[in-house]
Design goal:
alpha/beta; Aspartate Aminotransferase, domain 1; Aspartate Aminotransferase, domain 2; 7-stranded mixed beta sheet; 5-stranded mixed beta sheet; 42% helix; globular; binds pyridoxal-5'-phosphate; L-seryl-tRNA(Sec) selenium transferase; EC 2.9.1.1; selenium
C-alpha cells in the first residue's frame, strides 16, 4: 500500500502551489513545500497513507499552514488574571486618547523634529518635556525607551569609572533578570553598598562618600516589602546629605505614580511629585506601569543634569519613536485635564467601585447560565508596584474549571487568561475592560 515513490517531488508541488497562490513569495512556498513533503514521507513510513490523492493532500496542508503561519503571533488577550499591570500581558492598556494620537501621528508625517513656526529643524524632546515638568514640578525632563534604559543612561552619563552609593537593601533584582548591581557594572560605575539589608542610616551613606563618589542612588524596592525591624533613610535626608557634599541624588522610582494610590485603599506608592519636592536631582520611572501609557522610561529633574543626559551619545540609541511620544503626550494630557481616573485604563480599573463589578458579574451570569457563578476575589496592582497590596474584586467561577479548560480559554479567540483562586478557575472582572464583556461571554461559551 505505502509507496514512498508516489510522493510528489517538491518541484511538482511548488508548480501546483505557484498556480494556486501566485501572489505569495516563492521562497516561503518552497520552505513549506519541503517541510510538508518531509512530513508526508514520515507519515507514510508509519504506514499512514492519506485518503486523498497525495498532491491534493500536500496542497491542502500547505494552504492550512499558510493560514496558521501567516497570522500575527502577538494577539490581544482578555486579562482576567486580576493583576492590573501584568508585564507578561503587556502592562498598561492604552487610553482611547493615546491610541488615537498614535494613529494620527503614525499614519502620516509629523513635526517630530521640525519647528513649524521657524520652518527649520526642531527637537523631538520638546513634546513631552514641558508636560512632564508641568505635572511633576521638575525643571527638565527626557523620555527614553524604558526605565531600565533611563537608569543605564543616567549612570553612563554621570558615574562612569566612579562610585555610586546605594543602600544594601536596595541593590535588588526588579524582575525579568533586571538587577541593579548588574546595570551599575554594565554602565561602568562602581557599586558601593552601605548599611544592612534591613537597616540603613544617613551616617552609613555619609561614611561612604569620598572623592570617588559620583552620586547617591535610591531605588524604590517596588516588588517586595521588608517589614519588621527596618530603617530606610528618607529621600529628604538623602537630599540634604548629597547636596551638602555637592553630589546628585538619583531616585529610581520604578513604577512611579502621578496620582496618590492611597486614595483607593492601596498603600501609598511614592509619587513623582513627592520625589521632586523632596529634592531628588534626577528621578526615573516607567511609562507603562502606574502612569498607564506606552512603554517608555521617563527622567525628570535638574536642568543641568538632564542636559548632560541629552548630550550623551547613548541618548540617541535609547530615544523613543514618534508613536510613543504621541501616546505618552495624550496620556500626560489626561492627567493635566484632571481626567486620568476616567480615561486611563489602569486607573479606571483601580478606581472601579465594587458594586459596578457586581452589576457586571450579574449580567454575565445571566448570559452564561448555571455553569458560572459570582464570587468575591482580590486583585493586585502588580508591575513592580505596591507589593502585597490588594483590591477587593468580583469574579466569575467557572464550575469544574480545570487546567484543560484554562488552556482552552487561553487558546480562545480572543485569548482569555483566567486564574486559579482557592482551587477554582476564576475570571477576575476588575482587570477585564468593560467593553470586553461580550467577548468574554463568547470565549467562555466556546470553551465550555
Ligand atoms: C520596573 C522597574 C524597573 C524597570 O523598568 P522598565 O520600564 O521595565 O524598564 C526599574 N526599577 C524599578 C524599581 C522597577 O520597578
Amino acid at each position: 500500500m505505502t509507496n514512498l515513490r508516489d510522493i510528489p517531488s517538491v518541484d511538482r508541488l511548488l508548480t501546483a502551489l505557484a498556480a494556486a497562490v501566485p501572489h505569495l513569495p516563492h521562497a516561503l512556498l518552497r520552505t513549506l513545500a519541503r517541510e510538508e513533503v518531509d512530513r508526508l514521507r514520515e507519515q507514510m513510513r508509519q504506514d499512514d497513507r492519506p485518503a486523498v490523492a497525495l498532491l491534493d493532500h500536500l496542497i491542502q496542508r500547505v494552504v492550512a499552514r499558510l493560514d496558521s503561519d501567516l497570522r500575527p503571533t502577538l494577539r490581544p488577550v482578555i486579562n482576567a488574571s486580576g493583576v492590573i499591570i501584568q508585564t507578561n500581558l503587556g502592562r498598561a492598556p492604552l487610553s482611547r486618547a493615546a491610541l488615537e494620537a498614535m494613529q494620527r501621528v503614525g499614519a502620516g508625517y509629523s513635526n517630530l523634529e521640525y519647528d513649524l513656526d521657524a520652518g527649520s529643524r526642531g527637537s523631538r524632546t520638546v513634546h513631552l518635556e514641558a508636560l512632564l515638568c508641568r505635572i511633576t514640578g521638575a525643571e527638565a525632563a527626557l523620555a527614553v525607551n524604558n526605565n531600565a534604559a533611563a537608569i543605564y543612561l543616567v549612570l553612563s552619563a554621570l558615574a562612569v569609572g566612579r562610585e555610586v552609593i546605594i543602600s544594601r537593601g536596595q541593590a535588588v533584582e526588579i524582575g525579568g533578570g533586571f538587577r541593579i548591581p548588574d546595570v551599575l557594572r554594565q554602565s561602568g560605575a562602581q557599586l558601593v553598598e552601605v548599611g544592612t539589608t534591613n537597616r540603613t542610616y544617613m551616617r552609613d551613606y555619609a561614611a561612604a562618600i569620598s572623592e570617588r563618589t559620583a552620586l547617591l542612588l535610591r531605588v524604590h524596592t517596588s516588588n517586595f516589602r521588608v517589614v519588621g525591624f527596618t530603617h530606610e533613610t528618607s529621600l529628604a535626608e538623602l537630599a540634604t546629605l548629597s547636596h551638602e557634599r555637592g553630589l546628585p541624588l538619583v531616585d529610581d522610582l520604578g513604577s512611579g505614580t502621578l496620582l496618590p494610590t492611597d486614595a483607593y485603599g492601596l498603600f501609598p506608592e511614592p509619587t513623582v511629585q513627592e520625589s521632586v519636592a523632596a529634592g531628588a536631582d534626577l528621578i526615573t520611572f516607567s511609562g507603562d506601569k502606574l502612569l498607564g501609557g506606552p512603554q517608555a522610561g521617563l527622567i525628570v529633574g535638574r536642568r543641568s543634569l538632564v542636559e548632560q543626559l541629552k548630550q550623551h551619545p547613548l541618548a540617541r540609541a535609547l530615544r523613543v519613536d514618534k508613536t510613543t511620544i504621541a501616546g505618552m503626550e495624550a496620556t500626560l494630557l489626561s492627567y493635566l485635564h484632571g481626567r486620568a481616573i476616567q480615561e486611563i485604563p489602569v486607573w479606571r480599573m483601580i478606581a472601579t467601585p465594587l458594586d459596578e463589578l457586581h452589576r457586571r458579574a450579574e449580567a454575565l451570569v445571566a448570559q452564561l447560565g448555571s455553569t458560572v457563578s459570582r464570587v468575591a476575589c482580590v486583585s493586585t496592582v502588580g508591575g513592580g508596584s505596591l507589593p502585597g497590596a490588594t483590591l477587593p474584586s468580583v469574579g466569575l467561577v467557572l464550575h469544574g474549571g480545570d487546567a484543560a479548560l484554562s488552556r482552552r480559554l487561553r487558546l480562545g479567540e480572543p485569548a482569555l487568561v483566567a486564574r486559579f483562586y482557592d482551587g477554582q478557575l476564576v475570571c477576575d472582572l476588575r482587570t477585564v475592560l468593560p467593553e470586553q464583556d461580550a467577548d468574554l461571554v463568547q470565549v467562555i461559551q466556546a470553551a465550555l
